[in-house]
Each structure stands twice: as C-alpha cells, then as structure tokens.
Amino acid sequence: MGGPVPRHLWDDPRVRGHLAAGDFGAVFRFIRAHTGLTQLDLGSAVGLDQSAVSLITRGKRAVLTRRVVARIVEGLHIPPGLIGNGAPDHDGKVDWVNRRDFLVLVMGAIQTPATLDERQLDFLARTGADTVHRGRLGTADIETIEAVTHDLRRTVAARGGAMCRASAAAQLAQVRELRTASCTPAIRTRLQVATAELAHITGWAYYDSGDDSHARQAWTLALAGARSAEDHQPAIDLAVMILRDMAHQALELSTPTTAPARAHEAATLCTHAENLAARRPVSAPTRGLLAGMTARCNAAFADADGAHRAATVAQEAYARTDDPPTPPWAWFITPAAIRAQEGTLLFRLAQTRPEYAPAAVEHLAAAVDAYPDDAGRDRISAQADLATARIIAGDTDTATPDAIKSADAMAALGFTRGRRDLLTLDAVAARHPNPTDVVELREHIRAALQTLN
C-alpha cells in the first residue's frame, strides 16, 4: 500500500539531496509544495503534532533522534538508502561532525555497545602502529597499561593533544590488540575500562588538534567500551564523562546558523548522561561536571534561570562526600576547574547579557591564577574567556595581556581547538567603541590564528 507521497517524487534529485543531507525541513517543504498536503496531514502521517511539523518545516527544530527519523521514514514510505549520514570529507569518509545519525550511534553505543560497527571508525586505520600480540595478560600487564594511560592523560591536560595525538592513537591500537588475550574476568574488566579511557584520551587529542570528526569517532568507541564494562564502578563514571565531553564539543561547534541544532544535540547528550547516572551511582565530581554542562546547555537556549538552577546542582554535587569514590582519572577536577566551570557559564551568559561579565571575570581570574602547570590546556582556554569577559565588562587594559598570553600559548602548543575562543575574542574586540584600544590585542590574535590554520 502506498504512502501519502507519490512514489515518483522520491526520484526527484532535489528531494534526494535534502534526504542525503538529513534536512527534513526542506523535505517537508518539498512534499507540501508538490502534493498539497497540509502540516496536519504530514503530522498525522509521521506521528507528530502540527506545531512540531511547523517548527521542522521552518528550520526551527532539527530532527536528530532515531525515534523521530524512524517515524518520518515509516510514515512517508521513504525508500531505504536515501537518508544520508552527512557530507563526506576530503578522503570520501563520512564527516562525523555533520552526520545526521550521530545521536543514533551514541544511543546504540549506550544500549548495545557490542553492535558498534568499527568499520565506520576510520581513525583506527590511520594509526600505523606496529602492535605486539600477547597470549595471556596478568596483573602486571594491566597495571602497566593503566600507568601509561594515566601519563597520557596528564600530558594532554598539561600541553594539549596536538603533540601526542599520534602516540595516544598508537597506544590505543596496541591495547586493542590485547582483547583476544586470555586473562581472568577481573583483568578483562580492567582492560575494557583502560581501553575505553585510552579512546577517551585519544578523542581529546583529536579534539585539541581541531579534528572534530575523529574526536567523535574515538569518543563513540570509548563510550561503547565503557558501557561494556558497566559492572566496574569507574566505567559508569567514564561513560557519563564521555557524553558530557560530546556535549561540550557540540556547543563549541555551534555557529550562528547551527546554534539551535547544536544546543539541542548537546542537551540530548546530557540527558543520556543523566539517565545513566540515575541508574548507577556516580562520583560527586562527575555529577558536578555533568550539571555544569547542563547549565551551559540552558545558557545556549538563553535560559538564564535554568542555567543558574543547574549550576546550583553542580555546586551541591561537588560538596557531597557520600557518593562513590572519585575515579583515579578524575584528578583534574580541582577547585580551579570548578571555579572555571562557574566562570565559563557566566561568560556564556555575558555574551548576550553583559551584566554577567563582572562575575565571569571574578571567577575566571581566580581560576587562571589557581590552575597548576599540569592543567595548562584548561588555563589557556580560561584565559581567553577571561580576556573576552574583561572586554565585555569594559576593562580593555587588563584584557590585553590576558589575550596576548592566551593567543601566544595556543600558537606555541598548536592548540587548534582554541581557534574558536580566539575568534570569539576577536569578534568582541572588533565591536569595541575605541578600536585603537584593541589594536595590539587583535594583532596577536591574528598572528595566532595564522599559526593555527
């Protein structure tokens, strides 16, 4: 039996292009223009109310969940194979930043981690590492893997991931080869967690280097690994943290045209993390970081009240002492990091509501001063936000040295991810009423951006 859309319309190259791009708003507009169907007709066919169809049609709501995509495909009888995953990159591989089924893959990694199709993870084929095969693993082996993993995480936190991306990916490839070795169930679980953590670190190394697509691949692999070892307490913390980091990236990828969709994507990832944390206890620092990211999502939706409520939840979580022990890899969640989280939230709010800028400056300045050397990457990011917040607050004189320090440090470390911070800083400086006050600042920013291109 046919659907509400004549079959020949699915052969039209225009609608096929919309489907390949995952642009369901354009699909709805095309169908209405060529069939005369109303929004109510479409809603009835795909199981959505008229208001939802209207938002999608006008491009005000992105279709990002597997459930809604499935409704549309089934309700409109869309032929299989027409729904695209996003645009391919220069190598012909799918760009994970723009693939429309990313949240579907994430949900799959959470619910059925064993079904993750690793053939989609092309970063695994790029390590070029010579691996060593082992027949059996013992306690000394897993302790060595955990120690190397710990050192890699500290290096990435201190210096950013640009200089150690290759070594992190190579170590991950090596450890993944040990999956077939015989060992006790306890060692097997620790190996799963260590492998997931290595994939998490590798994702951050790619992320710092500006390779967002491979960062998402590595984090999806890490999430599946952590979920496979969920009976081990640190694994659930790690899964929550990975989802939180995915949300962080989604917000950072936001542009003026994609902001609503990216905010929705980030909020969905946080919801998945909250659902995991509701099933099994997680440590107080992990709960605090997740609540802090939820606050940032609310800020992205211009919901200041919701952002403050989530920030309060974060502070309450950090104050708790009765939660499970903090995982060893969470050493970076220090008072400085907590202060920076508060300051970053206020800074995001200040971009549309300048009255938040002085409080953002207070928190970020305290964080920058308190960050130890082994958290250099986070200090650099916080310093860029601090400089921007100072300009918003009208303190250009103090903003200039902060901006110069941050820009020069990013260029020296090859911290490509920091380009977004610098572009935001430059855009705010460009709006300064006295351009001569920000000439030096903007010159350093431009020089750093050329280095990071």
Give a nutshell description of this structure.
The protein is 66% helix and 0% strand.
Total number of strands: 0
What about the largest sheet?
A: none
Q: Low-confidence parts lasting 5 or more residues at pLDDT below 50?
A: 87-92
Strand content: under 5%
Estimated helix fraction: 55-70%
Topology overview:
Blueprint: H1 13-21, H2 24-35, H3 39-46, H4 50-57, H5 66-76, H6 102-111, H7 139-159, H8 165-176, H9 185-208, H10 212-228, H11 233-252, H12 259-279, H13 284-300, H14 304-319, H15 335-350, H16 357-370, H17 376-392, H18 396-413, H19 419-430, H20 439-452
Helix pairs in contact: 1-2, 2-4, 3-4, 6-10, 7-9, 8-9, 9-10, 9-11, 10-11, 11-12, 11-13, 12-13, 13-14, 13-15, 14-15, 15-16, 15-17, 16-17, 17-18, 17-19, 18-20, 19-20
Structure description:
With 453 residues, the protein is mainly alpha-helical. The termini are far apart. The chain is globular. The longest helix is centred in the middle third of the chain and has 24 residues. Helix content is 66%, strand content 0%. Helix 8 packs antiparallel against helix 9 and helix 12 packs antiparallel against helix 13.
List key phrases describing it.
mainly alpha; 453 residues; single chain; 20 helices
